[in-house]
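To assess whether the prediction recovers the assembly geometry, we first specified each molecular entity separately, as shown.
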Amino acid sequence: MTLNPTSRYILESLSISSKSLKELSEESSIHKNILFFALENLKLTDYILETNNSYSLNKFQIHNIKNDLSNIRSKRFEIKNILDSAKDKFFEKEDALKISKVFLTKEELDITQGLFKQLTSFLNDKSKKRTTENLKTKHVFYWGSQSYQDVLTHLYQ
Amino acid sequence: MKKSKLQQRILKDYYKTFPNQPIREVARTTSLHPSRVFRILNGHEMKLSEYELFESAILKKEDEKSHTDFFQLSRNCFQRLSINKINNLIEEMSFYLENESSQEIGVYA
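The predicted structure of the complete assembly is given in tokenized form:
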């Protein structure tokens, strides 16, 4: 099953702690009506439970939830959401999306890849730490590279 | 009689959307009586409900145009783009739709 980014957010947030609709709405700044329908749909799948107006993850469904969150279509949905947002902010916010087209020698390419590896390992380390902080204070980073040739051939694939 | 600025603007917008329409045609489009249209065009002050009729006629026409443009564009895409690109478009459209339909109960059931 494909999970849209709103459902993904809810599941991520409830994996930290149980929350009410009001708390989810305050944390995400998503309107309560939208969250309500997403919560109801997740309840229908048994992925979440509601007790005294508080929502929590159904621990017996963790395996299925993980499968759905990592299926290719759910991932593509999330990537599209993140990159669309970055693309729309590209002209407004200086650090929303950085793109560099550069010629690099083999040695320079190795150095760049080494720096990216360090960054990846630093961020992976940070992402493993469970935190009780508000999810909306999380930062979303995206990075990577490809050859200019690949970018050009993608145009006509 | 002096027309209000709002009335002048809506009539200007109306004739931009429906150029050279005769009174009878304006009456048909806005559902107003031809004699009332004649008076309005000659400076009689519009009622709010009449303003809304002109406004909704303009909006309806703009909607029709954007729908036509969209369907024309889709047709061109399907005729000229590769399967890969068409699949990307289908995926994009279905993602937008799935975001919208998440505001209905039963989407995952």
